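pasting Glyoxalase domain containing 5 for the record, 157 residues
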Amino acid sequence: MVHIFPFLLLQNLIQISQNFVTPPFQIRGLDHLVLTVKSIEDSTSDRIFSRNLGICCIVYSQGNRKALSFGNQKFNLHEVGKEFEPKAHRPTPGSIDLCLITHTPINKVMQYLKKYGVVVEEGPVERTGAVGPIVSVYFRDPDNNLIEVSNYHSGQK
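structre below
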């Protein structure tokens, strides 16, 4: 039996690699994601995003759509019960956990958040990011989404 296990493991790995198909396109990055919120007005006027994270609010020319913009990405905002189509299967406020990357050391991020009364849920803690080790701090937005601010500067807590 001991000799069969490595064979079965190898057989499974071969099957997985044979099932992997390279598509004729490549994903380059994330353009936007949708945050379902209780109130677009509260989310765009709240200091968690604007003052504390430096994320600005964009109002589209139609006037009925808003987004939070930073870098080359944005969070489109959908108000629960008034979502734009197409939408997620179960759009729910407070159901997202997202990680934002900064170059600022996390101890400075924490000092800033504390100065403005943001309750830090956890941090600084070491985690694994998409491209390597990160140091993170966690807190909640008004809809109870979990916001993680992290940096890749190893050893800088």
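The longest strand covers residues 120-128.
Residues 4-19 form the longest helix (16 residues).
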